């Protein structure tokens, strides 16, 4: 399958469910929706089986997160690059714009913080806001698309997307990372989200893309670094992470593009 073939199926499925997805997307503070059975199951199994061993991916491990990521797609099976870039097809973008009401979006062919991710047992993502902009701080990050491809996944296994509509101190809702499910989530100053800890000795695999826009989703300009917080039951970690936010935000006020190169990009 080439990316255009994947894209045609994805666009068709999105348009088929457009009205329902649009309704769901606008229900909560962290605007979101999800679509099951995005692709034929056999195609998704092929994508899942092509995922690399986690030892070949980059481990991001700290108080903030514990997960494996990769963006240098030419290091891996070609099917992975094809499915990643299928979500950047103009027809798919148009279908997503119809669902979300967000116009003039552009994909990120450099996969800044996108690409593929893998979460193994004990991996997690604490509540956080994504970086508000793209790598060069020229456009706002407005949407996150997450395509889950691990077969026989269930809520009890963990690794589920958590959305904190009232901030990281209040209860969250969850979108289970089910096989062949696409989740679409807005990113802005209130879009706190996380991933629950994986409880089993399995890999939860995900294909991810971000869309950007010259216009912010809110009615004013803003900038923030990727900002992690502690969970409600982690008061000490929360204090540490709030200090981390303040420090990194202060650095970015002086150094607009940061002091170190972000290596999570596709260098073509």
In a few lines, what is going on in this structure?
With 268 residues, the protein is of the alpha+beta class. The chain has six helices and 13 strands.
Notes on the structure:
It is a single chain. By secondary structure, the protein is α+β, with helices and mostly antiparallel strands. Helices cover 26% and strands 24% of the residues. The chain has a single domain (3-224), classed as Sandwich (Jelly Rolls), CATH 2.60.120. The chain has helices at residues 3-16, 18-25, 41-49, 78-86, 90-100, 235-254; strands at 32-36, 58-61, 65-70, 106-107, 115-119, 124-129, 140-148, 161-163, 173-175, 181-186, 193-195, 204-213, 227-228. Strands 1, 2, 3, 4, 5, 6, 7, 8, 9, 10, 11, 12 and 13 form a 13-stranded antiparallel beta sheet that branches. Strand 2 and strand 3 form a beta hairpin.
Task: Summarize the SSE layout with pairings.
Elements: H1 3-16, H2 18-25, E1 32-36, H3 41-49, E2 58-61, E3 65-70, H4 78-86, H5 90-100, E4 106-107, E5 115-119, E6 124-129, E7 140-148, E8 161-163, E9 173-175, E10 181-186, E11 193-195, E12 204-213, E13 227-228, H6 235-254
Helix pairs in contact: 1-4, 1-5, 2-5
Oligomer: single chain
On the 0 to 100 scale, the average pLDDT is 95
Structural class: alpha+beta
Low-pLDDT runs of 5+ residues are: none
Overall number of domains: 1
Shape: globular
What fold name goes in the CATH topology slot? Jelly Rolls
- Beta-strand residue fraction: 15-25%
Helical residue percent band: 25-40%
Q: Report the end-to-end length measured between terminal Cα atoms.
A: 21 Å
């Amino acid at each position: 399958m080439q990316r255009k073939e994947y894209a045609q199926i994805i666009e068709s499925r999105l348009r088929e469910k457009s009205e329902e997805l649009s309704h769901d997307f606008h229900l909560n503070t962290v605007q979101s929706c999800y679509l099951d059975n995005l692709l034929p199951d056999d195609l998704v199994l092929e994508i899942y089986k092509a995922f690399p061993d986690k030892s070949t991916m980059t481990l991001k491990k700290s108080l903030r997160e514990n997960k494996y990521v990769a963006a240098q797609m030419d290091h891996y099976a070609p099917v992975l690059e094809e499915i990643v870039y299928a979500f950047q097809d103009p027809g798919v973008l148009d279908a997503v714009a119809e669902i979300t009401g967000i116009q003039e979006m552009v994909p990120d062919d450099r996969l800044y913080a996108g690409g593929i991710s893998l979460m193994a047992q004990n991996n997690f993502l604490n509540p956080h806001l994504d970086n508000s902009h793209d790598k060069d701080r020229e456009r706002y990050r407005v949407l996150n698309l997450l395509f889950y491809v691990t077969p026989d996944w269930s809520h009890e296994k963990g690794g589920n997307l958590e959305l904190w509509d009232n901030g990281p101190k209040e209860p969250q809702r969850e979108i289970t990372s089910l096989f062949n499910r696409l989740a679409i989530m807005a990113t802005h100053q209130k879009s706190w989200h996380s991933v629950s800890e994986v409880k089993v000795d399995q890999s939860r695999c995900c294909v991810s893309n971000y869309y950007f826009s010259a216009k912010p989703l809110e009615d004013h300009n803003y900038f923030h670094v990727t900002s992690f917080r502690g969970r409600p039951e982690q008061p000490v970690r929360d204090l540490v992470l709030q200090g981390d936010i303040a420090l990194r935000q202060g650095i970015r006020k002086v150094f607009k593009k940061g002091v170190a190169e972000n290596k999570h990009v596709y260098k073509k």
